[in-house]
Amino acid sequence: METLRPSPVQWPERFPGMDEFLTMSDTPIYTRSTDYANNLTMEDMAKINELAQLSPKQLIENIKSMHDEIYQLGLREAKEMTRGKLLGIFDRDRVPKRQP
User: Fold this and answer.
1) Which family does it belong to (predicted)?
2) I need a surface site. Which of 32, 60, 67, 82 has the fewest CB within 10 A?
3) Which domain holds residue 62?
């Protein structure tokens, strides 16, 4: 039987008051859950019902196609950002400031 001893590297001791501070903040870990069912539109519910009717294989294919679309969108966005940098539209020093 292996016994685990406390390791300050693997399990660092938290600072006093850290837990209280983290629970007060809106970090994703401690964000209070909201009732998402109240925020859904009829279109959202229709899409959920449509996805619920798919077989697991069809659902995986649907997710893969969404992933591919998102990847292509990212590629297009990267090209546009590169184009913008080459054209100098993101260079703040070149844009003259307006005098009020």
Assistant:
1) Belongs to the lin-52 family.
2) 32
3) 40-100
Please, which residues have CB within 8 angstroms of residue 54's CB and are 6 or more apart in sequence?
62
23-70 per-position pLDDT tens digit: 666 665 555 566 677 788 899 999 999 999 999 999 999 999 999 999
Q: Is residue 21 part of a domain?
A: no
Sign of CA dihedral 64, 70, 76, 78: negative
For residue 86, tell me if it sits in a domain: yes
Q: Residue 89: which of 76, 100, 80 has the closest Cα?
A: 80
How many CA atoms lie less than 13 Å away from 74 in the CB half-sphere?
A: 6
- Tokens representing 20 are 């209280």
In one-letter notation, the amino acid at residue 60 is I
